[in-house]
């Protein structure tokens, strides 16, 4: 049903348009043109004020049959950096960049599939579910488009995000993630003249870090210390150090327990150093990045995708991911979205490529999962 030539053309058109995060305006124009040509209605939300992008998210709608549910399709318009002046090279089995830049298959392969899907459903007058497309900005800089999307514009309760590697993988489960900062306030002093008056925030930080568990905590949880900042000069006992960390887990309770242990470590370090000087203080600040997802296996969208794959004899596995995607925010806002691969590989590198067989397969899965089967 898909038009492979047109799908490739749309994809290569899209990757040739520069759209690093916060500069999605040109690619948005291309998408809006296409929607206008197809006579598909869309709205632009007001997220740009909050994401600081030069365009908002695009919300397109096709179909308004009252007796049928609405299904969301989503992909993001922005790419990571080294994404300017992309020149796609079409090979027999794949598409790559010319080796100087990323390809931008993350996530323009998803965008191309959505545009192809809308075109087919619209032109062929098939009996399909109502479809909404949420085309987001700023995914690569912290899922900002999805975070600030105007969810009042969406009717969907289920959907597919197209932002993963192989269409043989259907991500239905993902971790929660917390960002946490440990701020250690030591006491500054001259390191040569009166070091005994100071308390080194770096030494105290080392105390904390050496007691923390990091890396893989268990099969579905990780902790990472990503960045440390502290001290001011080599002849000053450092006054302030900040340790930036993250925890991810499929299990909310593990997050609670592990953060509890870290709080206890900080409490003990406080006890130890406050005895020396009351001005010493270490504290933790915790921020939720996103909530976990766990889409029920009997949801309409998973059932439809599995049915389609059976029909076409495609292999597909329900899998868990360790990463975050726009799907995390859709789920948080009441839209149960799975993440289906599009054929992209080695994304965020100059070796990024799009495997054509998988790209077509992904498009075929999406379109056929939106058709009402009697
Ligand atoms: Zn992506």
What is the strand and helix layout of this fold?
Layout: H1 4-15, H2 25-38, E1 41-44, H3 48-51, E2 58-62, E3 70-76, E4 89-90, E5 94-96, H4 105-123, E6 130-136, H5 144-147, E7 158-164, E8 169-174, E9 176-185, E10 189-190, H6 201-211, E11 215-218, E12 221-230, E13 236-237, E14 240-249, H7 252-274, E15 281-290, E16 293-294, H8 300-312, E17 317-320, H9 326-332, E18 336-341, E19 344-345, E20 353-355, H10 356-369
Bound molecules: zinc ion.
What's this model, at a glance?
The chain is an alpha+beta fold and 374 residues long. 32% of the residues lie in helices and 28% in strands.
Describe the protein in words.
With 374 residues, the chain is α+β, with helices and mostly antiparallel strands. The chain has 2 domains: 4-174 and 292-369, Aminopeptidase; 176-290, 2-Layer Sandwich (Alpha-Beta Plaits), CATH 3.30.70.360. The chain contains 10 helices and 20 strands. The protein has helices spanning 4-15, 25-38, 48-51, 105-123, 144-147, 201-211, 252-274, 300-312, 326-332, 356-369, and strands at 41-44, 58-62, 70-76, 89-90, 94-96, 130-136, 158-164, 169-174, 176-185, 189-190, 215-218, 221-230, 236-237, 240-249, 281-290, 293-294, 317-320, 336-341, 344-345, 353-355. The strands form 4 sheets. Strands 1, 2, 3, 6, 7, 8, 16, 17 and 18 form a 9-stranded mixed beta sheet that branches. Strand 19 (344-345) and strand 20 form a beta hairpin. The radius of gyration is 24 Å and the shape is elongated. The relative contact order is 0.19. The model has no long low-confidence stretch (mean pLDDT 96).
